[in-house]
Structure formats: C-alpha cells, structure tokens
Design goal:
disordered N terminus
C-alpha cells in the first residue's frame, strides 16, 4: 500500500491549492478586497508607465527606476492573484506541476528584483541629494540600463535553482498545498525526501539579497539624512525630506510584510495558518498597490501630469 501511494505522487501532474484553510466560508468576501487591491495596482502601475513614456521631462534615472518598479509590481501581482481569485470564485483549485513551479519562480524572481530596484532607487536619491551637480553625469541612461540589467540577471540567476531542485524531489505524501499560490517552502515541504538543500539555499539567498540591499539602503539614507539636516533653512530641509519620504514609505511597505512572512514560515510555528497565508498575500498585493499611489501623491511631477491628463480629457 505504501509503495502504491508513493508511486501515485512521485511525479505529480497536478497540485491542489486549498486557498485559505479555515476561512473557506469567507473566500468570496476575502476576494473583494483582494480584487480591489489588484485592480488599483494594475491601473496605478500602468498609469505610471504611460505618463513616464509620454512626458519627455520625466525621462530621468528616478523615473526609469520607477518604471522598472511598476513592471515588477505588475508581474508580481499578476503571478498570483488571477489564480487566487479563481480559487475564491470558482473553486478552481487545480494547478499543473509545471505551472506551479513557474509561478514559484516568477514570485521569487520578481521579489528579488523588486528588492534590487529599491536599492538602485536609494542610490539615485543618494547621488541626487549628496552630489547633485554630478547626478546627470554619474547616473547616465547607460548606467541606469546596466543597473537594471544587473538587477534582472541577479533575480533570474539566484532563483533559477528553486524550481529545478523542487522538480527533482519525489512527492509521496500528498498533492494538496494549503496556500493560495505555490509558495516555495509550502511546495517542497510536500516532498518525501531530505529537502535541506532547498531550504538552506532559499535561506541563504534571502539573507544575502535582503541583507545586502537593506545594508546599502540604510547606508544611503544615513548619508542622505546627514546632508538634509545640514541644509541651511527649515523649508529646504522639509522639502528634501518630503522627496525621500515616499521612497522610505514604499521600502517599509515591501520589507515589513516580506520579512514577517519569511520568518514566520521558517522559524515561528505557533502562528495560525490562515494568518500566515493572509500575510503572504498582503506581501504580494499591498506594495504593488501602494507604490504608484505613494509616488503619485508625493512626487509633484507625476501628480501634475496625472491632473493635466484628466483635465485635458475633461475639456
């Protein structure tokens, strides 16, 4: 009997996503804010891309990085939410093994890329405030493109072993994933093999990426704050601080739920499963929704272009 069960799941053709275990009766209600967050994220990020493309005055390093962030947010949220909503609305729980691994790869890859983009944006703010006269000569279009390519390659290459390692494990326990999407650890925990290689590698990548990026962000903003508080007038200090506050806001909105979800999944075992899954979805949905709103409200150039766009259409 044991051998038969092992054969059934050694190479599963499909997995079944449960959604949010324990809250099945509330799936339809939970889908309402989830869907609203996704719609706002898609509209907001496409608006950012459209405005930056249309306005030549916004063709600069800060807005190029903002466009990279918008594309990353669109891919990150679209990797998970359509399938999540299909579970909530149509009880469509089945996902093929290959599609599951692809979803896992996209989530991890673009999360890593988003962290790298935040580090690049911190570098841009550092040069713009600490060495404004050389900003345009240091961060040329070529340099920005190279930074973007480096962020892309880092994300793709570091995460590439995830699906390959997950594919090689035998799955003889079950093909049911208690989650709304194919989260890496949730998938490999189903394997009936020693998964320490996957676990240690993902842990090393997470600490390397987050540790390195957060270190450079902290160093950049320490220098930025030192320069800001040495400015001669209070108005100038407040204006410059306001420029940076939007970036700090989106950084906190990204890293706080990401770190909470990552740490509770691996080291804290007394957190309710439905609470962990909700937080894991917040980490993928809230930052893509907040980023265009915060930058749209706090960045005067974008705010002016949005108002001009709607005013022009209205007339």
């Amino acid at each position: 009997m044991s051998d038969s069960n092992t054969t059934d799941f050694t190479n599963p053709s499909t997995f079944n996503l449960l959604g949010i275990p324990g809250l099945e009766a509330a799936h339809v209600w939970i889908s309402i804010p989830f869907c609203a967050l996704y719609v706002i994220a898609v509209l907001g990020n496409f608006t950012i891309l459209f405005i930056v493309k249309r306005e030549p005055s916004l063709h600069g390093p800060m807005y190029y990085f903002l466009c990279m962030l918008a594309v990353t947010d669109l891919v990150l949220s679209t990797s998970t939410l359509p399938k999540t909503l299909s579970i909530f609305w149509f009880n469509s729980r089945e996902i093929s093994f290959s599609a599951c691994l692809t979803q896992m790869y996209f989530i991890q890859c673009f999360s890593t890329m988003e962290s790298g983009i935040f580090m690049a944006m911190a570098l841009d703010r550092y040069v713009a405030i600490c060495d404004p006269l050389r900003h345009s000569t240091i961060l040329t279009n070529t340099v920005v493109a190279k930074i973007g390519l480096a962020v892309l390659l880092r994300g793709c290459m570091l995460v590439l072993p995830y699906p390959f390692l997950a594919r090689q494990w035998p799955y003889c326990r079950t093909n049911i994933i208690p989650h709304t999407y194919c989260e890496h650890i949730a998938v490999v925990k189903l394997a009936c093999a020693d998964i320490r290689v996957s676990s240690y590698y993902s842990l090393s990548v997470a600490f390397f990426v987050i540790g390195l990026d957060v270190f450079f962000i902290v160093v950049s903003y320490t220098q930025i704050l030192r320069v800001i508080f040495s400015l001669p007038t209070k108005d100038t200090r407040l204006k410059t601080l306001g420029t940076c506050s939007s970036h700090l806001g989106v950084i906190l909105a990204f890293y706080t739920p990401a770190l909470f979800s990552f740490l509770t999944q691996r080291f804290v075992h007394n957190v309710a499963l439905h609470f962990h899954i909700l937080f894991a979805n917040v980490y993928l949905l809230v930052p893509p929704m907040l980023n265009p709103i915060i930058y749209g409200v706090r960045t005067k150039q974008i705010q002016d272009r949005v108002l001009r766009l709607f005013t022009h259409k209205g007339t």
